[in-house]
Structures are given as C-alpha cells and as structure tokens.
C-alpha cells in the first residue's frame, strides 16, 4: 500500500509541475511587450530611433498609431526594440506584431521590423 501512495505523490507532482509550465507559457503570451517612446523622424541607420520622453507619446500607447491622433505629440511607441545609448533599433511600431513575436509558447513567425 505504501508503494501506491508514493506513486500517487509522484504523479501529482508531475501534474503540478506541468501546470506551472503551462501557466508560464500563457502569461508570457498575454504580457505587455516592452515599449519605448521614440521620435519617428530621427532614424539613424547605425543607431535606430532616438528615444524621447514618454510624455511625447501621450496617453494610450496601445493603439500602435503613436501620438498622431492628439496632434501635439511628437513621439510614437516602439515595441521590443534594443536600446543602446539613447537609441532603439530592431523593434516595431506595431503592438500586435510585437505580441506575436512574444515569448515562450507563443505563436508567431518571429519576423518584423520598423
């Protein structure tokens, strides 16, 4: 009877561990992508877009259209870019594309760019 108890304990540990992995995969897909406010007119081939204060992008930031709707904003949200020395490159202006490129367990082609 003791062997049966031990076997049940092992199987429940495996199930709980598997559920943890599944939960991690699901939350990484639904998480907000990394974003930075950049000046879309400042692109430099070797450095990328100049990162500006997030106030330049205005509120919202989830539309992917940047601050163009408000008229006074000069920045746009740039998702999943590499930041280096005040510039960001190799990202995308499309939030949905950044989410598709997401983490462990997410579907997507892994392609995209600004």
Q: Could you characterize the architecture of this molecule?
A:
With 114 residues, this protein is α+β, with helices and mostly antiparallel strands. Helix content is 31%, strand content 21%. It has helices at 2-30, 95-100; strands at residues 35-44, 48-51, 76-79, 82-84, 87-89. It is elongated and about 70 Å long. Residues 61-71 and 107-114 have low confidence and may be disordered.
In helices, the fraction of residues equals 25-40%
The description of the largest β-sheet is: 5 strands, antiparallel
What average pLDDT do the residues reach? 72
Strand portion: 15-25%
Q: Which overall shape is indicated by the principal axes computed on the Cα atoms?
A: elongated
Intertermini distance:
63 Å
Continuous helix count: 2
Task: Give the low-confidence spans.
Answer: 61-71, 107-114
Order of H and E elements: HEEEEEH
Rg over CA atoms, rounded to whole Å, is 21 Å
Record the strand order, biggest sheet. Answer: 3-1-2-5-4
Task: Write a short abstract of this structure.
With 114 residues, the chain is α+β, with helices and mostly antiparallel strands. 31% of the residues lie in helices and 21% in strands. The protein has 2 helices and 5 strands, in the order H-E-E-E-E-E-H.
């Amino acid at each position: 009877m003791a062997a049966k108890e031990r076997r049940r304990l092992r199987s429940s540990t495996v199930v709980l561990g598997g559920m943890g992995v599944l939960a991690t995969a699901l939350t990484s897909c639904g998480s907000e992508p990394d974003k930075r406010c950049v000046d879309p007119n400042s692109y430099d081939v070797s450095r990328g877009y100049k990162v500006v204060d997030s106030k330049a992008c205005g509120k919202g930031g989830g539309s992917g259209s940047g601050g163009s709707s408000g008229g006074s904003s000069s920045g746009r949200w740039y998702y999943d870019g590499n930041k280096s020395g005040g510039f960001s490159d190799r990202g995308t202006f499309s939030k949905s594309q950044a989410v598709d490129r997401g983490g462990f367990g997410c579907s997507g082609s892994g392609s995209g760019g600004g």
